[in-house]
Amino acid sequence: MMDKLDIIPMKAWASPRNENCLIIAGPCSAETRDQVFQTAKEIQKSDRVDFFRAGVWKPRTRPGGFEGAGIEALEWLKEARAETGIKIAVEAANSRHVEQCLKYDVDVLWIGTRTTANPFSIQEIADALKGVDIPVLIKNPMNPDLPLWIGAIERIHKAGIRKLAAIHRGFFPFERTHLRNIPKWEVVIELKSRFHNLPIICDPSHICGNSAYVEKIAQKALDINLNGLMIESHIKPEKALSDSAQQVTPDHLESILANLKHRVVEIEDSKFKDALTDFRGQIDDIDYQMTELMGERMDLVRQIAREKWKRNISVLQLKHWENMQKTRIEHARERELSDTFIKKIFQLVHKESISIQTDVMHILNKEKQEKKDTDDGDSDQA
Length: 382
Ligand code: PEP
Ligand code: MN
What we know:
single chain, TIM Barrel, Chorismate Mutase Domain, subunit A, about 55% helix, elongated, binds phosphoenolpyruvate, binds manganese (II) ion
């Protein structure tokens, strides 16, 4: 299903240096006047960055940490803009922040992940934005709840904001991995297919939590045609008062931006198009066969369920399941398929198979009970 948002194309309001890719960079937090000026100057030198970001009010998990320099930081940002010419982007988490940012003539607002998760806060911000013409970028909520993300976008849109974009910053991980937040690209792809005209910018810094991985994730975002990047950059990352591990130096930022390959969606090359059609045809056949095989597999599962039911054996056979995973993974390795991929597939298959078996057993139980009730009724009458 595709929904329509009445929005102004990004190139009309941001005029990115690279038409297809908006670049926002700057420190996690504005800490001191010097840090803001030095970082802004270095970043501006590279000529690749469209907006300078800096957090002014910082949402910290626990009290006592650095909570941002507040209004003073807005002053520094305004001066840094006047000196370098780079436009500024600031996070707003409530109506007071919005008012202060408007007072200081901030060019772009973004809404952080914790705020997006709360419709009351979003509505308060939306109300403060009524009648205002400013671009607003909305980060995904911490949890991969697409309707919640869309709800926030719609509330801001309903307030009359037409310069809109989403920011993908990853989702809180259920299990720890090498990344701070899980990208869950499928959620972003779903958002893209719901709103074709909504620009989506990737924030690899908050996905990675570690500057070493930023380039790889940034490239992945461009590989799936996202429309820009927000990267945290600090003049001295090791000294940063927030998100120290994930910030890159302006030099590192320059090298990341220079290395990135920008992809196009289509090209006019008939030979390539024919080859693509051919590959896709072969893939269609394989997918069709996989579905057929899955159907056959689940038919067998139904038969097993009947046999287990007759003998009153449990649906879950833990030893068998553990052995199954092991053998499937070993086989998959021979085909150079990753353990995690194959594990996920068979977890899904097994889950479906368990649910089919419990359904079959439930029906058989019911049939047995109904038969018993009828038999009892017959004998009562006899
Ligand atoms: C930030 O951009 O510094 C920030 C706080 O991000 P998020 O809301 O994605 O955690
Ligand atoms: Mn940060």
